[in-house]
Amino acid sequence: MSIPAGPAHAADTITAADQAYFGYYGLDRARAKGYTGKGVTIAMIDGRVDTSVPELAGANISVTIPCAITATSSTENHGTGVASILVAPGYGVAPDATLLAYQTSLGKDVAGNDCADNNSNVRTRYSWLFNQAMNDGAQIINLSATSHAFDDQTKWTVARAISQQVILVNGAGNESKSDDDASLSKWSGVVGVSAIGADDNRQDYSSWGQGVVTASIGGPVLLRNLETGVNETGYGTSFAAPVVTGVLALAKQRWPEATSNQLLQLLVKTGLNPDHGWNQYTGFGAIDPGAILNTDPSQFPDENPLMEKQGGSSPTPEEVQQYVDGVVDPTDIVNDNSYTYRGLDESRLGDGLNTSPTHLGTSPRYHRK
């Protein structure tokens, strides 16, 4: 979540001049060159997005509420703020991208009884929502929140994203500590984002860890408080993450022939660490949108550079291959319309928890020489 700070004032329309990241990264120059994320589909998993706020007028946003969720004003403010950083016509990083906004239950939100079905699928869990976003064609998915609710379903969801080259971006958290256990970015392939300030220094509130890949401006950002009708200043990796997501959308538009693996190579190789090395605080260094938009990624290998994070990470390349080959236990697969179980376990045919198509013995691994 984010850290509110600073005085509130009357809710004037928020503009690019109010957002530190916009001028810092020269996003006006990117727009002048036509780099706006057009043709790219971003998904976000967060609090409810209020698309009626003036800042989002004209943005291409589709809101999915998967079940009855009683949202608090703080989570709605958060979701609306993250969506605005991504696609607000006035100051969004990728204003012409298509945004798929999926509401989950955060903080003190209350999930209704319909959020769980008879197969123990929970529609507010990240694994269910990530897979729904991929089912719907998302190319980059932003999760600003942290959570301890990660399990085997998460692992196989991440394996799907890696195999289908969908980029996952996650804020490192605001606990001022090494916080891999609460971060999606501990998993292979995920772009973990810590926060820096406009002075280029790492922010004290920002968490860190083995999953951090890059860093971005985490504030100050001006946010609309939907309950009080005033604008508030906020800081957090919740806002650093969508900046990175937006820049990756610009890169996908700029370099349409590049694979997502090559774009991740580009992100890593243009990071601003002086030695181009890695550290647990800023990953490979703060993001450099100018270098990303001016460096052709086709020179880099079509290989995911985040497959094995510092100290080891999951899913491993072998686990990703298990997913691709269809031999993962289908009861660990949730809401994935692309998965078919092709293993040898006949008991899966009558298993009520198996919702995947099942073609026994057809895995490609049984036919490789």
Plain-language structure description:
- The structure is a single chain.
- The chain has 369 residues and is of the alpha/beta class.
- It contains nine helices and twelve strands.
- The chain has helices spanning 20-24, 27-32, 73-87, 126-135, 152-163, 237-254, 260-269, 289-294, 317-325, and strands spanning 3-10, 41-46, 61-64, 69-70, 98-103, 110-111, 140-143, 167-171, 191-196, 212-217, 221-224, 230-235.
- Helix 4 (126-135) runs parallel beside helix 5 (152-163).
Provide a quick synopsis of the model.
The protein is of the alpha/beta class. It is built from 9 helices and 12 strands.
Topology of helices and strands:
Elements lengths: L2 E8 L9 H5 L2 H6 L8 E6 L14 E4 L4 E2 L2 H15 L10 E6 L6 E2 L14 H10 L4 E4 L8 H12 L3 E5 L19 E6 L15 E6 L3 E4 L5 E6 L1 H18 L5 H10 L19 H6 L22 H9 L44
Parallel strand pairs: 2-5, 2-7, 3-5, 7-8, 8-9, 9-10
Antiparallel strand pairs: 1-12, 4-6, 11-12
Helix pairs in contact: 3-6, 4-5, 5-9
**Overall pLDDT confidence:** 93
Amount of beta strand? 15-25%
Number of helices, where a helix is a run of at least 4 consecutive DSSP H or I residues: 9
Physical arrangement of strands within the biggest beta sheet: 3-5-2-7-8-9-10
The strand count comes to: 12
CATH superfamily label: Peptidase S8/S53 domain
Gyration radius (Cα, Å) is 20 Å
CATH fold descriptor: Rossmann fold
Question: What is the ordering of alpha helices and beta strands?
Answer: EHHEEEHEEHEHEEEEEHHHH
Domain tally: 1
Shape: globular
- CATH architecture annotation name: 3-Layer(aba) Sandwich
Class by SSE composition: alpha/beta
Percent helix range: 10-25%
Poorly predicted runs of 5 or more residues = none
